[in-house]
Amino acid sequence: MTTHPTAASVAAHRAATDDTAYARVSDAVKVHGAGETEVRALDGVSVGFPTGRFTAIMGPSGSGASTLTHCAAGLSTLTSGSAFVADTELGALDDRRLTLLRRQRESESESEPGPGSAGATRR
I need a surface site. Which of 57, 60, 108, 121 has the fewest CB within 10 A? Predict the structure, then answer.
């Protein structure tokens, strides 16, 4: 049986390989446990999240949606693969540098106008 990529999967692959994506993961694998109790929460996932767009990550319980979100944000580490925020590879950062990166990105996002805000900033 041949499967054909959907428009959404093609767009996700393009975003995952696009260096301008705000956050992206490439060939992301996250394994919990080992041996008989091993669970692959992510198995070769590649996706990008473009700057200035809202993205919903949805799936049934146990689908890996929360794990993907945590790994893309640097809250959890990947077993293999890579995760980037802007041009920074998260796997190369220690805990202190991850914290500094999150603080920097959070303060930048708070100063950017949101949709329908007419240029106002949050305080």
Answer: 60
